[in-house]
Amino acid sequence: MTNEKLAKRVQQVPEGTVLFRDGDRGDEMYVIQRGRVRIFTEVKGREKLLAILGPGDFFGEMAILNDKPRTASAEVVEDAQLLSIDPKTFGAMIVSNTEIAVRLIKKLARRLDSANTLIDLLMHRDPKARTILGLAHEAEYNGQRREDGSVVVPLDRGGLANQIGLSADEVSTVLQRLGRLKIVEETAEGFRIPDVMRLHEFLEFLQMREKFGDE
Fold first, then answer.
1. pLDDT at residue 213 tops 70
2. Which end of the chain has less Cβ packing within 10 Å, N or C?
C-alpha cells in the first residue's frame, strides 16, 4: 500500500473516545502517531489497566491475526492521531516489510514476558513484596520515563491495588512507608519512582530482615 493510501486511513480521535471494548469483533488494528491510548480490561466488575501506549506503539493486532473477539478495551486518554489498518493491508505490510514483522514478534514476546512476571508477583502473599514488585512491574512495562531518569507509573492507589490483587488499605500502608523513605512519590500523574533499583533494594532489605528475624 502506498503512503498516500495509508494517509487516507489516518484519523483524529479526541480524548475520551472508546475505540473498542473487550468482546467486540475486531476488523482493524491501530498505530499511534500522536497522543496516548490506555488498554484495559474488567475483572469482576473492576477495571484492570494493561498498558498506556504512546506514539510509535500499535495495538489491536491480535483480533485481526486470530479473527477472535477483542480481549481488552481501548480508550483515547490524550487527543490522538491514529492510523487504522485492516487485515488485508496488514498482511501486505508484513510480507513487504520485515521490520514490521520483527516489531510485532518483539511486542508479542514482551507481552508474554509481562504476563509471566505478573503471575510470579501474584504468588507472593506478603503485601509489601507484592506492592513493591507490582510497582516495579508497572514501571518496566507501562512506565513513562522522564528526562531526570525517574519513571512515572500512571496509576492511583485503587488502580495499583486492583492490578496486584490487594485491598486499597494494604497498598496504602506500603505506599506510605515508601513515601516516607522517598522511594516512591504520589503525584497527579501517578506514582513517580526516582530510581526503580531502589525499589528492588528495599525489597531485598525487607526479605533479609525477615529471614534473619526468624532465625
1. no
2. C
